[in-house]
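INFO batch 0412 | record 1 of 1 | parsing
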Amino acid sequence: MATETKKGKRAKSTSSESLLNDIRRNTKRIFSSEQKVLIVMEGIRGELSVAELCRKYGISDSTYYKWNKEFIEAGKARLEGDILREATSSEVQELRFQNQELKLVLAELVLRYDIVKRDHCTMNPFVASVLSETIAQCAAQSFLYLSRCFLSV
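INFO prediction complete | emitting C-alpha cells
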C-alpha cells in the first residue's frame, strides 16, 4: 500500500505541475514594443547577464534573443532606409494645421487676383500698371512663404 500512496502522490504532483505549466502557457505576458526595446537595451548595456535579465522579466532566453535579433534587424533596415518612418499624431496635427493655413493664403490670393482682374478693365492705365506690380510683389512674397512652409515639412 505504501507504494500506491507514493504513486498517488506522484500522480498528484505531476498533474499539479502540468496544471501549473498549462496556466503559465495560457497566461503569457504580452510585452509592448517599447517594453521589448527597453529589455533588449538593458541586455545590450551588459549590467546583468542574459539569464538574470530573463528571470527579472519572466521571459525565456530564446525570447530575449529573438527580440534582440528583431531589434538589430530593424535598426539595420532603418539605417539603410528600407522602412519609412510613421508620423506621430502631433506631427499629423501640425501638418493639418499648416495645410489649413496654406489653403487660406491661397484663397486670399485667388480673391485678390479676381478683384484686380475685374477692376483692371476700368482703371487708368498708370494705376493698373502700378497695381499689377504690387500684386506681382505680393504674389512673389506669398510664393516664398508657401515654398518655405512646404520645404520645412
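INFO post-check: Confidence is low (pLDDT under 50) at residues 1-11.
INFO record closed
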